[in-house]
């Protein structure tokens, strides 16, 4: 998989959906290319007094349906093709849940775990200055992603506001609540994963109570998903993070694990409870469970391991965790897969709510936010399920049928 390019995945699914919709190459030509791509380099004085130059990216895939929207990833493996793919996925994610955004994404090549808070603050500030010409509440609204935090969104907002000469709350979402963040935003992506899991189990006639679940990734999304599914009565038998995984056939004590991981220095590989077995991330993906939730990075389920996946339901909490080749293998096995652009859209939906609250200078209760989120996620799931059945295609293709049609029709209506 050395030559794996996530943007090729985007193009593969896009072409398949466009063909079913009867669109010509002309109709989707512009969607195959991002509108804007910015690569930046900026110097930062490190704690030891040396100056290090960091590289970053901001890509706007489409602004046909509204401002670009998408997170900023701080990770040592960030690259241009990954950011392009993530930006395109955001375009379709916003379209499938029908919120008025296009797709964008950003990234900085760094390893946050090896940086001090002061260094992270300086990197965030300099990156914001570098991409400032592209961002703004009406143009492009960043948010947290892998390796970035609400605190860093606060620093981005502050830096952008200083450049403008006044406070601009709506330039980023995922901020701390005290400076304009939305209640319910931290849990939003995981809550959307929970809604998606409930919805697909209901469609398949599977009782939620006692349903076995394995979750790869215990960051914000994975841990919130684990907690909410545990509360729903499902049996979470395995979880993992970058240090390794843990498995208990009788179900894990999820609240205890989350409490243990609240100290960032604690490694999941060192956690123990009665009946627990330590496993690798690769082993977790191949466990005999009903529901598998990849909530880590891209390319986790690929042609080399797809035939060994035993789960009958996959919920993509991460972006792009399954390659196009793996999709074909899983489909041939009858696996029902809820795609990333639907399953993990809860985060961008509540980011949209945060932006609306910022622009209107109002704030909603957490109950309001969660109710509004469910009122968007459930109908979106039903629409994807129905169109996939009508066309006898996968839920991923169904989601793209809805998303691409909305983007192409918007483009035509604007006379583009």
Describe the structure using short key phrases.
alpha/beta; globular; 416 residues; five-stranded mixed beta sheet
Provide an overview of this structure.
This protein is α/β, with parallel strands linked by helices. It is 44% helix and 17% strand. The chain contains 14 helices and twelve strands. The chain has helices at residues 6-21, 25-28, 80-96, 117-131, 150-164, 185-204, 220-231, 254-261, 281-285, 324-332, 340-343, 346-360, 366-391, 395-413; strands at residues 36-45, 51-62, 68-75, 102-109, 140-144, 212-216, 235-241, 244-247, 277-279, 291-294, 313-315, 336-338. The protein has a seven-stranded mixed sheet. Strands 1-2-4-3-5 form a five-stranded mixed sheet. Helix 7 links the parallel strand 6 (212-216) and strand 7 (235-241). Helix 1 runs parallel beside helix 3, helix 12 packs across helix 13 (366-391) and helix 13 (366-391) packs across helix 14. The chain is globular.
In short:
With 416 residues, the protein is an alpha/beta fold. It contains 14 helices and twelve strands. The strands form two sheets. The protein has a seven-stranded mixed β-sheet.
Radius of gyration: 20 Å
What is the overall number of helices? 14
Q: Estimate what percentage of residues fall within beta strands.
A: 15-25%
The end-to-end distance, rounded to whole angstroms, is 38 Å
Arithmetic mean of pLDDT: 94
Helix content: 40-55%
Number of strands: 12
Low-confidence stretches: none
- What spatial order of strands do you see in the largest sheet? 9-8-7-6-10-11-12
Structural class: alpha/beta
Helix and strand sequence: HHEEEHEHEHHEHEEHEHEEHEHHHH
């Amino acid at each position: 998989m050395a030559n794996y390019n996530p943007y090729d995945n985007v193009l593969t699914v896009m072409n398949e959906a466009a063909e079913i919709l009867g669109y010509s190459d002309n109709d989707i030509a512009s969607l195959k290319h991002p509108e804007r791509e910015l690569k930046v380099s900026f110097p930062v004085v490190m704690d030891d007094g040396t100056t290090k130059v960091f590289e970053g990216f901001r890509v706007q895939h489409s602004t046909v349906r509204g401002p670009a929207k998408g997170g900023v990833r701080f990770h040592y493996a960030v690259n241009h093709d990954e950011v392009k793919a993530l930006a395109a996925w955001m375009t379709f994610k916003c379209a499938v849940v029908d919120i008025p955004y296009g797709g964008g994404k950003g990234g900085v090549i760094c390893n946050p775990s090896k940086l001090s808070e002061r260094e992270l603050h300086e990197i965030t500030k300099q990156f914001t200055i570098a991409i400032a010409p592209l961002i703004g509440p009406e143009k492009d609204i960043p948010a947290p992603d892998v390796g970035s935090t609400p605190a860093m969104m606060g620093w981005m907002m502050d830096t952008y506001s200083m450049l403008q000469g006044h406070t601009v709350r709506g330039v980023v979402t995922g901020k701390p609540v005290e400076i304009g963040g939305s209640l319910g935003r931290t849990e939003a992506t995981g809550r959307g994963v929970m809604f998606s899991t409930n919805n697909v189990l209901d469609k398949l006639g599977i009782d939620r109570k006692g349903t076995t679940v394995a979750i790869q990734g215990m960051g914000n999304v994975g841990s919130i998903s684990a907690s909410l599914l545990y509360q729903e009565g499902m049996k979470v038998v395995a979880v993992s993070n970058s240090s390794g995984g843990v498995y208990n056939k009788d179900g894990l004590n999820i609240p205890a694990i989350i409490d243990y991981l609240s100290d960032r220095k604690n490694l999941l590989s060192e956690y123990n409870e009665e009946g627990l077995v330590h496993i690798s991330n690769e082993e977790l993906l191949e466990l005999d469970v009903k529901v598998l939730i990849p909530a880590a990075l891209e390319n986790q389920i690929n042609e080399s391991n797809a035939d060994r996946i035993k789960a009958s339901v996959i919920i993509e909490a991460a972006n792009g965790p399954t390659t196009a080749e793996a999709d074909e293998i899983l489909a041939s096995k009858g696996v029902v897969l809820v795609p990333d652009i639907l399953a993990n859209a809860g985060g961008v939906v509540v980011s949209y709510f945060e932006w609306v609250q910022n622009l209107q200078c109002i704030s909603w209760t957490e109950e309001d936010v969660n109710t509004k989120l469910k009122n968007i996620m459930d109908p979106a799931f039903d629409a994807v399920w129905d169109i996939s059945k009508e066309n006898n295609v996968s839920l991923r293709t169904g989601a793209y049928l809805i998303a691409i049609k909305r983007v192409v029709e918007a483009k035509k209506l604007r006379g583009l």
